[in-house]
Write a structure and sequence with these properties.
The chain is α/β, with parallel strands linked by helices. Helix content is about 55%, strand content about 10%. The two termini are about 40 Å apart. Bound molecules: flavin-adenine dinucleotide.
């Protein structure tokens, strides 16, 4: 991996855990330590996931336990009002909040309408809060995954399916149009490859409508896919030719296992890079491309990768892009990589955190993913666990 010359970057010290955990009292830090220590045990995560799923199905009283542990660590609360505390705590360190209504697995027109209404409320909230720089939604939160898949396959749709797809498009439009009217930037999250083409198409349709004056709508580019870097370049050319700004959220991609399994089962070419190094290369090359074309592209790096964050900081400096230039943002998830968020914000970069919220049952799939991500892999402790452990050591406090 290429190294970055120290003089090329503004001073960002990710190992400075005193900044990352400054807002946590000793007792809160101990709680965080135990949570990550438990999640670091792969067998405990697997067993815990199994029992929590079962307990929720059997309606056993486990919600308080979840609320006081994993939910408190990774979510802002059950409602927008609950998230106020997190919004102001992050704002005190110069970090913005991205309210992420994280309800998953609902599959009825009624729930799609309810989710759309809730996301509209997050846009309204962002419009009146200087601490909420972006809003976000997933297309599968407001429309049927099965239908999106059929549309991507260009399968023949029944009349009612055609109508249902028009309703998805109209919901996407109502969110982007409200965002544009209120001057609030909005991310469209990326999902599985078998529905992503449809999501991309909707995203570009919205950009063509709402990104004429300034970047409002951002599509998400998953750089773990072979074809994404090329697609980013084409998206830029199209945006430039058609006269709108390209909004690009760059991520590595969250569905690697699902993608590989499906490609294997259905015997098609795996859309994901063969190894992590190839994903890293494309991610860093995309950052480079966006900065090179910053006149036309607004970019947000959704990453917990220290090297990519530093690399971007270094390239910004080389290109004379100010740290607080509104066209470049860094984003992490609430409860993770605080060493990046707090240290980058302290150094003057634009930083925001996704703060998921929603009823406990409905955000469980999100929480299970976070627990899986924080397991130790091949005997290596998780990044978050090591960070909190090092802060405990720095403070010289016991873990009990
Ligand atoms: C603010 C924010 C928004 C996000 N939004 C989305 C979104 O809309 N859609 C989405 O899919 N994800 C999203 N993610 C998740 C993201 O895609 C990554 O899964 C996650 O951030 C971990 O990647 P990383 O860049 O932080 O760092 P790292 O920990 O350095 O990278 C881990 C990632 O590398 C890739 N990888 C790992 N092993 C391999 C391998 N063997 N071969 C190829 N690639 C490999 C995978 O993508 C894996 O997630 C978001 C993340 C953040 C922080």
């Amino acid at each position: 991996m290429a190294s970055i010359a120290q003089q090329d970057i503004s001073p960002v010290l990710f190992e400075d855990t005193s900044v990352a955990f400054a807002s946590q009292s000793d007792s809160k830090l101990r709680k965080t330590y135990w949570l990550f220590a438990m999640m670091n045990q792969a067998w405990l995560v697997n067993l815990g996931t199994f029992f929590i799923k079962l307990a929720l199905e059997l309606r056993l009283p486990v919600k308080n336990l979840i609320r006081n542990t994993i939910f408190e660590q990774f979510c802002g609360g059950e409602t927008i009002t609950d998230c106020e505390k997190t919004i102001s705590a992050l704002a005190q360190s110069g970090i913005g909040t991205i309210l992420d209504y994280s309800v998953e697995g609902e599959d009825s027109e009624e729930s799609f309408e309810a989710t759309t209404a809730e996301i509209l409320r997050t846009i309204d909230k962002a419009a009146v809060s200087e601490h909420i720089p972006f809003t976000v939604f997933k297309v599968t939160g407001i429309g049927s995954t099965e239908l999106l898949e059929k549309v991507q396959q260009k399968a023949e749709l029944t009349t009612s399916e055609q109508e249902a797809f028009e309703r998805i498009r109209s919901r996407v439009n109502s969110l982007c149009s409200r965002a544009c009217n209120k001057g609030v930037r909005i991310f469209i999250d990326a999902e599985e490859s078998w529905i992503q083409d449809v999501i991309d198409k909707l995203a570009y349709e919205m950009m063509g409508k709402y990104n004429r004056q300034q970047p409002i709508v951002y599509n998400t580019f998953q750089l773990y896919r072979h074809e994404t870097l090329g697609q980013l370049k084409n998206a830029y050319l199209t945006a430039r030719d058609k006269g709108y700004y390209l909004g690009a959220k760059l991520v590595r991609g969250a569905y690697i296992e699902k993608e590989r399994v499906r490609a294997r089962e259905n015997q098609y070419c795996d859309p994901v890079h063969k190894n992590k190094a190839a994903t890293d290369n494309d991610f860093n090359a995309s950052v480079d491309f966006c900065l090179e074309h910053i006149e036309h592209i607004a970019v947000c790096l959704g990453t917990h990768n220290e090297f990519s964050s530093l690399c971007c900081a270094s390239k910004m400096k080389k290109r004379g892009i100010a740290q607080n230039d509104q066209r470049v943002w860094f984003a992490q998830l609430q409860g993770m990589s605080d060493n990046i968020s707090f240290n980058m914000a302290k150094a003057g970069y634009n930083v925001a955190k996704y703060v998921p919220y929603g009823p406990i049952d409905a955000v469980m799939p999100y929480l299970f993913r976070r627990a899986q991500e924080n397991k130790s892999i091949a005997g290596q402790s998780s990044r978050e666990y090591l960070l909190v452990k090092s802060e405990i050591k720095r403070r010289g406090i016991s873990t009990m």
